Each structure stands twice: as C-alpha cells, then as structure tokens.
Amino acid sequence: MQTEKQEPIDIVLTEYPLEVLGIRNESYKDKKGVWWVQTPAGYRILKKISNSESTFKHILHATKHLLANGVNLPNVNQTRDHRDYVNLNGTCFVLLDAIEGKNPSYSIPQELETVVKGLARFHKSSKGFFPAPDTKPKYHLGTWIEDYEQQLEDMNKFYKDECGKQEPDAIGKAVIKEFPYFYERGKKALEGLRGKDYSDWVNKASKEGCLCHQDFAAGNLLLHPSGKLYILDTDSLTVDIAARDIRKLLNKVMKKAGKWNLELTKNMFRYYQAENPLTPAEWRVVKLDLLFPHLFLGAMSKYYYKRDKEWNMDKYLQRILEMAQFEKTITPVIDHFDSMIP
User: Fold this and answer.
1) Helix runs in the chain, H state only
2) CA–CA gap between residue 161 and residue 130 (Å, rounded)
3) How far is 102 from 79, CA to CA, in rounded Å?
4) Chain CA centroid to CA 257, Å
5) pLDDT for 278-287, tens place per residue?
6) In CA terms, which of 89, 129, 197, 333 is 20 to 30 Å from 323?
C-alpha cells in the first residue's frame, strides 16, 4: 500500500509552470488523493486519479463538453508542454483551480432549488455528448434491468442462507424480517422497467447523447459568492439517462430530512422541470427507479461483502435497519407520484 508521503507530488508539480509555496494534503486513499497547492497566484487543487488513463480521457472529454455548454467546473491547468494531466508510471494527476464558496444546504429552500436546477442544467448541457473513440467511458445506458435483477437475486441468495440457519444472528433476523417486502418491491420495479417507457428513454438518449454525474450532492458542489453553482468532482461521470441522478439526489435530500416528504419532493420535481422538462413517461421511469430498493439492498451488500472493513456488526445492523425504515417512508410519494409530476 502506497502512503500519502510516498506520493511523487513534487515531481508531478515540476511539470507545471508555477511557483509552489506550500502543499497540504486534503484526503488520501492509496488510489486517489487531493492536495491543496499554494502559489503566488492563489491555490490550486492537485488530484490523483483512481481511473485508468483511457477512462480519465473520457472524463476530460466529457468535462470539456459540459464547460462548452455552460456548466461551471474548475479550470484544468495545463502542463508546460500543454497537456491536461500528468501520467507518472501509469497514474494520472490533474491540477485544477481552487474555487471559492461553500457547500449548499438542502435545508435552505433557496439553496436546494439552486442544486436541483443545477442538476437539470447539467443534464440539459450533456445532450450532444458522445464518448470519443480513444476513451473508455463508464457506461450504464440500457443496463438497468440486468444490473438491478442481478443485485436483487444476489441478495436473495443471502436471504435464503439466513432462512436456512437454525439460529440466525441479529443481522440474519433483520434480513429475514425485512427482505421479502423489498424483494417484492424490486420485482415490481423491474416489471415496470421492462415496459416501453424505459426502453424509449434509453433509445432517445443514445441518439441525443447524455451524461450522468452519479454523485451530484452537496459535498461535491460549491456555491460561489456570485451565486454560481460549481461542480467539483467529475470522477464518476457515466453515460446514462437523467433518472439515475434524479433518484440519487432525491434519496440524499430525503435521508438528510430523515424521511420522505411529499411537499419537498413535489418542489424538487418542479425545480427540475423548470430547467430540463421531462415527459410524463420519463417521470414514470424516475418513479420505478425510486421504487427499486437501492438503499436497503446496498446496506445488505455492504454487510455481506464486508465493504467497510472498519465497521463492526452493530454498525452494519444499524445501517440495515435504518435503510429499511427510511425506504418504507417513500410509500406516500409512490402512491401520489402521478399527481405530483409537474
């Protein structure tokens, strides 16, 4: 395992035409890292990229398309020989301008409106984007049915294993109690996705071009003093329909609120529709994606595959129970969804 102190930061920075006054590490996880670089002209952000070079080329190609279409992103600094990044022994590093501002708050109505409208403008600006031939894009367009079915059946195997135990532990008992409800919900969502609405949207997006951010959340956004919303992290840009991002943002906002809220959901729909109108059929796809129990299945998967080595059994149990309780609060939203579409 590489440590933060072993990273060749000084060597990477010599590739850039700037005077370095100081370096401070912001975050580090072996395959990726972030450093603040102080220069006489202000701060820069150096990022170690976890993606392969071909995938990073896709991300750069996508960010240039978004910038050209009005999305606010940090400027990419060029090297002395006019490259967008440094490749050192197969690892890519990119230097970005630091942006002044603060993370938006979902609990402040005006800021939440800015976030949702920012996501809608992001999707609108992504139209016309198609991956370049020499890149390796992240791709989810048209893969939902197969991916979701695999997730559901994967967790169903663990559920059956728990049912076969003579004395299941606390987590096993929780899974035995909660999984059947979410399994039926997942199957219902998949049944809907096999219909015409999803395939029509996929076909439309494949012809028009599209991008999803995948983590369009407050922690990856900055509100500049000018009022502009900047998107900081583009490492997960993927080719997919907008519903993916809408579902993820709705889940994040409602989790922060503690449960699903009809009026808040309706407002978010209205904010989005004002900037990037979806058809009733496309909103029905959003509904199906919200119906699928992503968060509960994710909590189960996190435990059974021990995705977080630092968590103990109590932490995993807490997450499974919390996600089960939270996911069930969406029922009124699903029941009233059609009447809430702007």
Assistant:
1) 9-13, 53-68, 109-126, 144-163, 170-193, 196-208, 243-257, 262-275, 280-291, 294-304, 313-328, 331-340
2) 44
3) 28
4) 19
5) 999 999 999 9
6) 197
Q: Are 105 and 92 in contact (CB under 8 A)?
A: no
Those residues with Cβ within 8 angstroms of residue 320's Cβ, 6 or more apart along the chain or in another chain: 171, 174, 175, 178, 296, 299, 300, 303
Question: What are the structural domains, with CATH classification, of the chain?
Answer: 4-97 (3.30.200.20), 109-340 (3.90.1200.10)
Query: 309: pLDDT confidence band, cut at 50, 70 and 90?
Result: confident
Residue that has been written with the tokens 């496309």 in this structure: 282
Name residue 221's beta-bridge partners. Answer: 231
pTM: 0.95
Query: With contact defined as beta carbons under 8 Å apart, do 99 and 230 qualify?
Result: yes
CB 73 within 8 A of CB 98: no
Q: Which amino acid, 33?
A: G
